[in-house]
Amino acid sequence: MSRSLALFAIGLTFGCGIGFVVAAGNGITFTGHDHGDPAQHGGAEHQMESLGHAHSQPLMITAGSSAPKIAVKVHKDPMSGWNLQVTTENFLFSPEHVSTADRPGEGHAHVYINGSKLTRLYGNWLHLGDLPKGKVEITVALNANSHSPLMIETDPIADSVIIENP
Asked: Exposed site from 55, 85, 94, 145, fewest CB < 10 Å?
């Protein structure tokens, strides 16, 4: 009897652990809302629904010559995939300050493929390997150190390009 109870406890422990890992990997939380359902989100931070989900408030930037700017280009890689080139003005990539207090003019970027977040970007170049076939929209949006999206009025500071992936 005690051996059965011990095996049951071990199985329960591993089962719960695996369940939590699978849940976390699929965006399931205990916060009382569905991260995959934009209808369950409100407020200004969700004006960027096509750029993914964020819990942080947007960081509003004043328009003008000192506001951050971004431009993206995509180059076909001679071996495979694509190379994403990101050029910024009035913005410094600062991976050493990610998830810390915001500092004016610095942060990181988020890369989106067809509206779904792919990764964070901490520099000017990124290799994009397996992209969907056909028309692909690649968007790069600037974010503060705290992950808050940078916005001018209601517009994210972002740039997009559409490629045809054979």
From this structure: 55
Here the CATH number for the domain that contains residue 94 is 2.60.40.10
Angle at 113 between CA 43 and CA 148, to 5 degrees: 35
pTM: 0.68
Between CA 97 and CA 81 the distance in angstroms is 30
Q: Is residue 122 part of a domain?
A: yes
pLDDT in tens, 27-50: 554 444 444 444 333 333 333 344
Q: Where are the beta strands (DSSP E) in the chain?
A: 59-60, 69-76, 82-89, 92-93, 106-113, 116-121, 125-128, 134-144, 150-152, 155-156, 158-165
Q: Is there a contact between 122 and 113 (Cβ–Cβ < 8 Å)? A: no
Mean pLDDT over 141-145 rounds to 97
**Number of domains composing the chain:** 1
